[in-house]
Every structure is written in C-alpha cells, then in structure tokens.
Amino acid sequence: MDAEWFLEATAHCSVGRQAREIAWEQTPLGPPEEWPHALRHVVRLCFSTRFPVMLVWGPDLTLIFNDGYEEMLGTAKQAGALGAPAEVVWHEIWDVVGPLFESVLSTGEVASYRDLRLVMNRSGHEEETFFTFSYSPLRDDDGRIVGVLDISTETTLEVVNQRRLRTLGELQTALPTTFTDLRSFARPVLEVLDESADVARAAFYDVRGSRPVVLASTGPEAGETETMLVDRVFRTRQRVVSAGLVVKPLRDAVRGGVAGILVLQASSLRPWDRAYARYLTGLASTVGAALRDAVRLRTTLDALRQRAQRSEEQIAQMREVALALQQAVLTEPPTPDHLEVAVHYQPAALDRDIGGDWYDAFVTPDGATTLVIGDVVGHDLSAAVTMGQLRGLVRAIGYDSQESPGRVLERVDAAVRGLALGGAAVATVLVARIEQSEEERRRGARTVRWSSAGHLPPMVVRSDGTVDTLTRPNDLPLGLAPARPRTEHTVELHADDTLVLYTDGLVERRGHNLRDDIADLARALEGTHTRSIEQVVEAALERMLPGPGEDDVALVVLRTGPEDPGPVEPAPAAAARVVTA
C-alpha cells in the first residue's frame, strides 16, 4: 500500500498540507498507507469542504480537522492539535464534550446541540463561546464504531449579540421616568444589569461630597483601576473608556452639573474589543439619557407648579390649550367589519400637567385596520405640540403608504429628521396593523403585525379569558436613531379575542416596579372576555387607577368578531364606541 491517496486528499487546503508533516506512524492511527478505507473516505470528505469539520478515530480519539475547524482552535491550540488525542486538545471542556463522544461511540446515536455554551481556553485566556454541532458515529471497514464525525458552527457572536440586544430592551423598559433620588433611579437599572452576562459589575457613585462614594452596585467589589478612573471622571467630568471599564458622568442637563457617576465593567469571559466597548458605552449613554430626561421632567413639573401658584390665569390658559389638544386626539374610531374598537383618553389629575399621550385608529385603503398608541417624552406644552405633530405624521404616512408598522415608523423617523422637528420629538410609539388573508378569513383568524418604538408591551385577552402579555425586544423610541431599521412582530387573533394597547400612565405608579405593574394590569384583564369592550376599559382603570391619575392615560381596545360563515355579504358596520374622561 502507498499514501498517494493521502497526498491527493491533503493537496487543496492549508491544514491538509500540515497533515503531511505529522508523524502519523507515531500515533495510534499508524501511517496513512495503512489506514482503513472507511477512515480514508471520511478524511477525504474532511479536507474537501470549507465548512468546519473535525473527526476523531481510534482508541485515543486522535484528532483530524480542516481549515474551517482550525479557526475554532484559537491561537493557543492550533499548534500540536492535529494528530493529538481530543481529550488533550480540549481538556478544559472535556467534562462536557467527553461524555458526548462516549455516548456516540457506545450507542451509535447522533448527539446534536444548538448554541451550547462552552467556557474554553483557546487563546491564552478563558473565553465564553457557543457552538451548534452534531456528533455522528464513524464505522471501520468491519462495521464497528471507532470514531466520531463533528460538523459544527460557532455561534458565539450571534448568541452574544442577541443577548446584548435583549438586555438593552429590558433596560429601556426598566428605566424610570420619575425618581426621588439617585438611589431610587439606580435600583431598577441594577436589577436588569445584574442579570446580564455581559456586565460583570455596575455601580452608581454619589458625587455630592468631596469625593465620589459608591451609592449602589451589583457584582464584585471595586478594584484599584475603577477607583482611579472614577476619581479622574470626578475631576474632569469626562467619560473614560478603558480596558474592560466604562466610567460615565451622569449629567444634570437642567443644572449643568453632574448628578452621579456610572461604572460598567465587562465580563472577563468575552474579549474586550471595539464592539464590546461600543455596547457598554451605549448602555451607559442610555442610562445617562434617561436620567437627564427624568431630571428635566421633574424640573418641568416643578416649574409648572410654581407658575400655577403665581398666576391662575396662566393655569386656565394652559389648561385650555391642553383640552384643545386632547380633543384633537379624541377622534371617532373606525367601524371595520367584524371588529369593535373602543378608545379612551384620561388627562392627568393635575390641571397644570399637559400630556403627550395619544391614540389613533384608522382603516387604510387596502382594508387593514391600523391602531396607534404613543407617548411623547415630557409633560409640557412643547410635548403636547410635538404629540400633535407626531400623531399627524404617523396617521398620514400609515394611511397613504399602506406599509407595514415597521416601515411606517422608519418613515416617521426619517420625517422627524428631515423636517428638523428637533430633540423634543422623542416618543415611544406602537403601531399595530390588523391584517387578514383569505385563508385566515376562512379560519376566522387575523394577524396583528406590530412594531414598538420603545413602548410598553401590548396584551391580548383570549376568548377563554386568559391574557397574553406580548413582551418582545423593543426598538429605540422615535427620534433617537432615525437610520436604524425597525423590528416587526406578529400574533394571531381569533374570534372574541381582545387586543389592548395603553400608555405608561396606566401602569407606572409611584413607588411601584414597572414590571410588577404590567403584571398587575394583566391580572386586571383576566376574565374580561365576557364583558363589553367599554367594561374592559373600566376594569383596567378601576384596578390600576382607583384614584386620580398622576399621568395622562391613553387606551385602545379592539375585539374581533366571528366571520360570516358563507361568502362575504354587505352587512351593517359594527358599532364603534368612544370612551372619554
């Protein structure tokens, strides 16, 4: 026998040419000219594809792999891995993958995993990785199982990126819009970051004294580097991005000073690269922007209170403007076939607070029903004016373009920028489009397609009285990132299902956690499937706002009706109801 087959099989890839230099006769496999036909076949397959492929063969599970798999070995394992026992090469994760090899060898059954987390040391440091792979048995010429074929793909970047986006969405939901002090602001932020695998430590520093002091934190204690960088930021009032650390001053936009310092520390299990630095910097900027908005909101409310105390006439004038704007959004809902729509707007109890909440409902020329719920950042006359502008943009673009919710929000974002509406045009908005294909009509179903620009999750009261809270990763609010594409989600509605959209005035109560309040609203809606949609609104308000509300509230409720059993016949439109306060 000769090894011409081996020279031919290894001629077309880098690792194959390296394989020619291995002293195979010193391994349990022996020289290539003596390898069985079954092993030769799988070696040819390994070296002929660019996809990552690895195989082990023989009593020591001797390792053979191709160019695609070599990249997975990092910088520390590539030298010496070819022809070595798999247990030696992957010793630090052998407690995980070793039993998988043994299972395939002993049972002959395939073992496969999706996004399996493995902490390995392949480049001189411990690293968190994720792999999707399949282990298949390999048989020798006599039919005995003597090896394992590994077809694998590293999914680390995809898993980590999705995880980071999920944390950002949860943080946006948890960020308080009002607070009494920095500690109360920090608490929900730290609750979210404590669950993130990409934030090893987060800390808020109090800067009211002569030196910064840790006010609240999660994760390990502060190290010397953190202490040094916090002192530097305290002196310079400038952000610092160092190896594994982001230290950001939390600015008080109203007073022109610094309200605190935020520290975010990266996990040692992921490499500190430009993407990681951008991610932590983005998290810090999101927290900083929310604090500035909350301070600005609180200052605006204080200014309105002082103005009200000085001039009853000014109060009356502002209230008159607010009522006019409120009446502008209290339009009649449409009356689409087989759907009932109820809308509700309730202004804040304080006469001097002018809200930016709004709702809308309209039918596009293609017959789809579109629902809109929104909340402009701020509680002043500017917020109310901006509300009117944004409502008009969403309505006009949604009606004229007949495009999906995500595309509508993208076009509104572009219009906000193109029309130079300014930094005040920041709002959370949810656009939902109720669609129905012919096949869905026959089944008595509809699809709700929606896109959320930082808004609260919609809820569906099913026909059996159960409630689905449609929590999905949120996109950024309108006006923050006009060039970023919007994400869309779908859910199917059946006869007598009820869709509920609402603003934060319904669920954001002083001293409460927002997530707990959302869960409380879901409990309030349970069992309302037998009530009218006006009673659904009343049930939500009675449970969540037993007294005067501190913020304005907007609600849109849609209930599906049964489809006609036969061909569509002209029928009287369903009665639409408007509930106002």
List strands and helices in order, with pairings.
Blueprint: H1 4-9, H2 14-19, H3 37-48, E1 53-57, E2 62-65, H4 67-70, H5 86-89, H6 94-107, E3 111-121, E4 126-139, E5 145-154, H7 156-174, H8 182-193, E6 201-206, E7 213-218, H9 224-236, E8 240-242, E9 245-252, E10 257-265, H10 274-310, H11 312-329, E11 339-346, E12 357-363, E13 369-376, H12 381-401, H13 405-418, E14 427-435, H14 438-443, E15 445-453, E16 459-461, E17 467-469, E18 489-494, E19 498-502, H15 514-525, H16 533-544, E20 553-560, E21 577-580
Parallel strand pairs: 11-21
Antiparallel strand pairs: 1-2, 1-5, 3-4, 4-5, 6-7, 6-10, 8-9, 9-10, 11-20, 12-13, 13-14, 14-15, 15-18, 16-17, 16-19, 19-20
Describe the structure.
- By secondary structure, the protein is an alpha+beta fold.
- It folds into three domains: 4-156, PAS domain (Beta-Lactamase); 175-300, Beta-Lactamase (2-Layer Sandwich), CATH 3.30.450; 330-580, Phosphatase 2c, domain 1 (4-Layer Sandwich), CATH 3.60.40.
- It has helices at 4-9, 14-19, 37-48, 67-70, 86-89, 94-107, 156-174, 182-193, 224-236, 274-310, 312-329, 381-401, 405-418, 438-443, 514-525, 533-544; strands at 53-57, 62-65, 111-121, 126-139, 145-154, 201-206, 213-218, 240-242, 245-252, 257-265, 339-346, 357-363, 369-376, 427-435, 445-453, 459-461, 467-469, 489-494, 498-502, 553-560, 577-580.
- Strand 12 (357-363) and strand 13 (369-376) form a beta hairpin.
- Helix 11 runs parallel beside helix 12 (381-401), helix 12 crosses helix 13 and helix 15 runs antiparallel to helix 16 (533-544).
- The longest helix has 37 residues, at 274-310.
- The relative contact order is 0.07.
